[in-house]
Write a structure and sequence with these properties.
heterodimer; A: 746 residues; 6-stranded mixed β-sheet; 13% helix; globular; B: 180 residues; Butyryl-CoA Dehydrogenase, subunit A, domain 3; 9 helices; disordered N terminus
Amino acid sequence: MESDDTNESDDSNVPGSLAREIELIADDLPVGDASAMLASVHAAAKRRRRRRNAVLGLAAAATLLVTGVVVAQFMSGNSGDDMIVSAPVTEPVDTEPVDTEPTDTEPVDTEPTSTEPVSPESSLVPIAGEGPDVQSDQVAVVDGVGTEVIPSAVSVVSDPEASTTGGDQNELFPWKDGVLAIRTTYPPQPLPGELPTDVVDAFPPEVQELFPDGLPPTIDEAIEILQEADLLDEVTQILSENAAVSDAIYSQPSEGPVRTVRSSPDGVEWTDIDSAFPATSDGWYAASTGERFVFVRNVTGPDEAPDAAAGGTPFSNPVAIEVHSSTNLVDWSVQTVPVPERPADLDPRIPFEVFAHSLAATDSGFVVAVDASAHLDYVELLEPEVRDRIQSGSGGYSMDQGAEGVSIGIYESESGELAETLTFTWAELGFDSPQPIDGMSDVIHYAGTWDGAPAVATGDSQGWLDVRAVGDVFVRLGPDPQWSIDGVEWTPVEGLDDGIVEAAIETSTGVAVRTSQRDGTQSTYVGEDLMSGEWTPLSLPELPDGLSSEVFGSGAFLLSDYGEEAYQDPYADAIGSVQTAEVDGYEYRHESLHGTAADGSDWVETYTLTDIATGEVVATETGDPSSPDGPFEYLDYQADFGNGLRILDPESGDALVTMSYDELTHQIIDADGTLVDPAEFEPPDPTAQMMMSPEYWILASVPDGWLVQNVSDGGTPDRYPSSVVSFGDGALVAWGNGEISRVTAT
Amino acid sequence: MTKDASVTSDDETRPERHLVAVDGFDDFFAEHHDRIVRSLCLVLGDVHLGRDAASEGFARALQRWGRVGSYENPAGWIYRVGLNWARSRRRRTVREIPEFSASESRSSDGAVAAETSDRDLRILPALRRLSVDHRAVVVARYYLDYSEQQIATALDIRPGTVKSRLSRALERLADDLGTA
């Protein structure tokens, strides 16, 4: 049979040199620096794994009404990396890790997936406030450099009743031969006693009837009432779509967080400490030398943040940066750190933000890292009605900036699809040239001593975002690590030339660091100190490959694989599909039976066309879809300008029947051979499909060697590590759900 | 090529889960980088966009390399991801990435024409006048050397659509080149 001319790819009417000419064009195209792109690719993949963890943590907190819009924006990709633009030809290519783009940007995986479901069972059994040793594992192994892995056991020691949602997790610090746990708890949002009529009218009668005597004192109580009435989702939607109503509901200032301090000699018995930590919402960063506890406050004032509760928020510029220290948690001394001044030549419309964001302490002094950045809030420059349009949508928005201006995408809340794109030139925004939207961050390190003298800025701190203390030595982490005794004079750390120093801890015999290589893999090196430049790889067979340092604290690393993407194929168990139609007295049936080979090579396609009146099969073919010419010879998929198919008579070439794709009924053949409507298959959860449960391992230094222990539990929500510390012969891990795991030598 | 490996600890306390190895990705990248970048540059008509699209495709492949690496044609998967990403990006950033209109001759930095301005190539302007969909199949067929079935799989379109697009694209090329 002859093929339809319009469907035949005939090379005869183009120059035979087409391939060669294209090849010549392509050869001239500059492909750029492949190694730079490879590094960028690895970095992007790593960032996305990190982000998935963050997104899941945020999504779990979305039961609070206020987070609805935030989550929508986050899920729409408006989270920083979305602002990366096409790289210039001379620079390494970067990409934008948008994992939640509309589905049309990424191919549907038609290949069979071999991922397996996560075991829902936890291997850790909570023990309320009691002792250790629920499970034990690991055997003692002497590694290649003579460091012993100590057999250990893991248990959960926190009180499950005290465990709440993310934000209430503990921070752990070494303290007086034991450990200090500081839990930060945020009081519930208070509600106004009375709402304006127009705000009340925004809610349907059934919601208003739930509160005949006005709103309850706090939002937690209101949520409970709404949940019982099954109206929480409806109210959340109203709040997310109506900024004025949301503002009215959240109009009452909330009290600052409450910090509960407990100490323990063993991680099992805990004693409450009546400390004098400030109950404000100021930014808080803390460190401990074991004998001295230190925290830094961004003290915001009414001039800077007139509407902020209790002195401002962490995002208000501080009027002062204070370092508080104590050796008994009762008596405190305060030292000040200079607040970086706004550059005189910075456009007055661009906010200049200052924020102390990390702290390191030794017995002799401290180093504070202060971030100072210019950040243009372009939305504030827009006309009010445009601003409202952008901010009122519950589907979130994204932003791209370029040489010409800013492009803002507004997304549909339900479909997640791009609904509208607004563009503004820099001139329209009132500028002569492109402005920094994602910030010009400058990190300044200030060093001080415990004698009360004002802290001083150290030289050349740009580029070292993180500073830590390892014993009595400060260390700047990153690609070019440096060490310092006084925090002022810095010296390169020698001997670690193969990657970025991600983490550093003090060990029982010196110091250990985690370095990451270009391909994203990490290694552990141990040495006597940071100064000698002599390092030995730490090779522990018990520790799996492919882990990265997620958090680290005194004497311990908490390592993770960050989870893996878990593509949830709703048809994973299906063995095939069927399309049927009845047209012009014929029954058409097309079966696609999936094979088991990964490349789909043994998939089989069969169609039959049956005369309904006589039961006679008038046409049928069986073929291999991987065949270069397709599975069928007499089935034309391009009938009716691509909108339908037709089956041709092998002898005459005439169409036996033509049908549009709309006439076809699709069914899935499940594992039992039953035909199922595709609608009955659960669509993949867009958040749950983002990762498999991450696996967490603790690597902790203890006096006789190392504890290497898997502290995963199969993926409990909110159970992400927030803090880790080693003390005595054990270690503790604090989790985002309030839980604390204890690992002890056995 | 590595494949997924289901790892279950013999230690009963360790939760069962699925680990995906990424070994072999760097070798694959080294082997296919140039060709994928160039193919996307050709289709998209912009060197910067082509590189970004390739980078995005590789990054997404790495994220799920255990699965993508086992495919018959991982490069084809990346080709499609890159194209889809670029189309989406084009929709989202209309200012940043101007449309590749039929008779437009871009001269800004990064445009393919600028990069090849020293070569008298009749085929380039003809290619540029094709739609992106048609360029995608032409480049896949004549530069990546994919079979029609491979193109169909890579671009997730029917083989018949490949035939149709290729046929029309070649007709258009022939018209433009005066060889019809």
